[in-house]
Amino acid sequence: MSDSRTHPLNLLVRKLDQWNPLSDDDCNAVRALPFTRRQLKAGEHVVWDGDRPQNACLILSGFAYRYKVAGNGGRQIMSIHMKGDIVDLQNSLLGVADHNVQMLSAGHIALIPVEAVRDIAFSRPAVGMGMWYETLVEGSIFREWILNIGRRNAIVRVGHLLCEFAMRMEASELGKQTEYELPITQEQLADAVALTSVHVNRTLMKLEELGYISRTRRRITINDWHKMAVLADFQPRYLHLRMDARN
Amino acid sequence: MSDSRTHPLNLLVRKLDQWNPLSDDDCNAVRALPFTRRQLKAGEHVVWDGDRPQNACLILSGFAYRYKVAGNGGRQIMSIHMKGDIVDLQNSLLGVADHNVQMLSAGHIALIPVEAVRDIAFSRPAVGMGMWYETLVEGSIFREWILNIGRRNAIVRVGHLLCEFAMRMEASELGKQTEYELPITQEQLADAVALTSVHVNRTLMKLEELGYISRTRRRITINDWHKMAVLADFQPRYLHLRMDARN
DNA sequence: CGCTCGTTTGATATATTTCAAGAATTGTGG
DNA sequence: CCACAATTCTTGAAATATATCAAACGAGCG
């Protein structure tokens, strides 16, 4: 395949292969999936709660997040996604979306028709297994967030989220584990950790004051990874990353 | 199949068929899966965090829950399972368990070797799709729990959990939507909704005092489903139940 | 350069936790 | 079947983490 290096779906190949090794044929089949590319602005919605999406959505660039809104108006972000993540496999396979997906920053996505996803998943078990893994790992991250929000206090909680980003950013080659740029406001951060933006602000300042992090606008630096991981009660096993078990 | 009515794996057939219709052949193939039956006491662990489980586990009777423990000792229950649920598909497929699974009450489980699960999932797409759905729906429930714990106050939160149980119990034919028995202590309930057992106690009493529920020991009666659903901000779509869309 | 959005700061309010002890219920061995 | 032990539930008072409200400050942007 002449375009095998620059092909947008290579991101998908890489992701799936990471979870479950693919043969060359599998890789080519994934690259041969039909898709349409779209450019989205920050704040644009990929899916609305209640929709019946017809496509799975692969993030090519930029960041996105899933969220729900409670009856009292409170918003809760349930996950944050970056380049290479497949959002909306859930929503499209389950038929009707049970949550919203919105772009955090401007970015590109690839839309792949559900039927094509379904077909390749079962005609090529390795591909299917990779997709299944992807959803299983997401489940694992959801569980950790439940623990994080449910049982950790503000400073540990925010610290934990910063650590998670750090590892995932590095795994996606979007930054180093100890330094990365995340285009998120404190209000959005608050909605992710179930705190108030005011309290998130105070918490970030305390993390900085205590020497755990440095920050300039949207850039986070974790000064001492080990110290931070201890404070943040962060054990990355739940991410199920197959990297050379650094850390 | 002479034993097709009493066969333990019928529970699995039913569950998978609910998510994605199975052919007769598929049903028989599921029933033909190898498995071992085990009886567990209340409090026994099905899997420990860090284990490398070799089996997927189907609950035949009794209740179980998944939990994690934070560094500060706080315990968080992430899901509660009943007859017909498949726990530990996650843990066994992902290789190393990222959370604990423990029996809430005494009960029976069927252990199915992972390889057999993996094989049937890809040799029989309808079965595989059903399993995938199962994990997707679980993901959806996790997301709702994140919202519940993150953005709802005590009374709404507890109410929401009671509503969820109500629907799931009825869907599993373990009780009526408005009345069911759940062998859970207030301490465990507290660990599920991320509150203190003391506060859960006060909250249950308030729910009772306000007329939303009645209770005798472990039996919960929801006096007026609609009123309760409104209070509890409960919209069951996230359960993705395929029942005749009651409610 | 002025506007808007995001961050920072302060004072006060409140939901939930913590600690502690008593009451009720369930389980158990004799 | 009773008596005792062990959980579980209930209640109260005090402590605290986080929310709320409101205003000032700063930075990026058209």
CATH topology of the largest domain in chain A: Jelly Rolls
The CATH first-level class of the largest domain in chain A comes to: Mainly Beta
Query: How many structurally independent domains of chain A?
Result: 2
Q: Count the strands of chain A?
A: 11
The CATH homologous superfamily of the largest domain in chain A is named Jelly Rolls
Spatial ordering of strands, largest sheet of chain A: 1-8-3-6
The number of helices of chain A is 9
Shape descriptor of chain A reads globular
For the largest interface in this structure, which chains are involved and how many residues does each contribute? A-B, 48 and 48 residues
Largest sheet of chain A: 4 strands, antiparallel
CATH architecture of the largest domain in chain A: Sandwich
- Kindly state the percentage of residues in helix of chain A: 40-55%
Give the CA-CA distance, first to last residue of chain A.
Answer: 36 Å
Summed over residues and divided by their number, the pLDDT of chain A gives a mean of 93
Structural class determined from secondary elements of chain A: alpha+beta
How would you describe the oligomerization state of the chains in this entry? Answer: homodimer
